[in-house]
Amino acid sequence: MSRLLPVCDFNRSFVRWGVDTRLKQPKTVSHPPPFTLNYFRMRAECLAEVTDRQTGQTALYVLSASCKTEQVNVERDIWTQPNADFCMVAGPDRCLNLKRWDRTNKGVMLHPPSLGPQPERQLMNPADSFTFYARDIRRVDGRLMTEVDDIAAVTASDLPMVSRTRIEAKHYSLLLEYPVVNANFSPREKYYQLDTGPVILPDLHAPAADVLATFHLAYVAHARPGWAEFLVSQPTPLTPEISVHHYSHPVRVECHNEMFAVVPG
Fold it and tell me: Is 0.90 surpassed by the pTM of this model?
């Protein structure tokens, strides 16, 4: 009998927050907000469960989908200039905001400018800027697939798939869970290989309590249960003076990968 386990329903799982300028002013924007109340929903792209080896405590971190920096509730000129990609790694009580412009160290100022330039990696307490903050994770049944023929057959179908990668780091156990957006397979040569993302990968040598600050965006590939290769985004030089955020740093890890077919509801 096929083994069923709960997996994330990524199409119905979200990071949410709200800003009410009558209660507090946000510390993450580059222009005066053209509203007094705004709520935002971003779809979950990856889950990262970190279990501290010393305490046994587990913390869940959620990578949001990326968006472009924007003005809300305006008649025109929605896209801020210069524009940035924005996503969030949402933890239980802190979050990491990631902004990537056309080059690193762009120097775009926060509003008001007395707050200084916008950080590319902004670690913050959501309560300092938001009046509402939540991670809503829904689960559905997933059928664990252990045979290449089964994985290939599901890849050829229209069923959603989810993968999990468990990594035993120095101070913690890391369980990544992410939708299989892209995958290769061959029923003739009997292989599969996913190439999917973005996911998040932390510093595998960091203490569990400091993991949030070390997450970087990455893509993941694996074709066997026992290893995975990540391509990590990092500042990448174009010239001696200019660098950009680019997926350029390969990392290979020993791990345990699992593949799931989402069971139709």
Answer: yes
